[in-house]
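Write out this protein's structure.
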Amino acid sequence: MARIGIIGGGSWGIAIAVLLHGNGHEITVWSALEKEVAMLKENREHKMLPGVKLAEDMLFTADDREAVEGKDLLVMAVASSYTRETARRLSALVASGQKILNVAKGIEEHTVMTLSEIIEQEIPQADVAVMSGPSHAEEVGRGIPTTIVVGAKSKATAEYIQNLFMNEAFRVYISPDILGMELGGSLKNVVALAAGIADGLGYGDNTKAALITRGITEIARLGTAMGGKFETFCGLTGIGDLIVTCASMHSRNRRAGILIGQGKTCEEAMAEVRMVVEGVYSARAAMELAAKYNVQLPIIEQVNQVLFEGKSAEQAVKELMLRDKKLEVSDLPWPA
């Protein structure tokens, strides 16, 4: 049995708490919001995961020390826009070598740092790992079979976390490619906005398939330029996560995109979804990275123009369709 602190009382943090408690571990869930802590204590259920009951011996707290000290693993499950603030707040309590597993997805807009880089910067004494893959909280909380990847700098850390999480409904692979995993998990949210916009416009399966396929091409193009491994973008944290996020109504990014495609502004869509839409925050960062690494991201560029420059969704699709004629795969040779 391990002692695990879940940092973040949102639906994803709670789904992971339920999973790990079911594996026999001692769970403490921390939230910065006193009202959220009180709701979880009283109802033993998260409002976004109806029917997923929280065990009586699962602890809920807003006390930083209670959540961090003496824990074998900390699971960082706060939204990406709060990762730096939370890491800085807890840094002094984290022991040297204490393991932190980040399970959120995103790129910080102004620094274009990945979330693990932020945690390492704010908590340099920690051993930071990441977990990513196609894994909606609504399904993990109910024990629906799910497969994900844990990335870490050392194989020993990756295997330790793999053993904590693995069960008959939750299969865990491990990988050394933390950067590729995080870029896949972050940028797929931007492409999912595009897929949702297409749905909101009333387009069909052909359009969705094109966006997914060309979207992973863009993600891999940027990711490999930055040092990620091509194989990672072909796997669970690349194409796997992209497929589920573009296709499922559990996806807040797709839902926000649908509303934008139906004519709502970015702000109106986020307000209606009532959850953090990570793709909105990663979209600008993606374009900063594209400029830095001299990489073309036509789908992500059009999403940015719709989100932030007032371009109509219809015009964005038209411009994507009318781009210059190209080879699908540029380095394939023609027969002599």
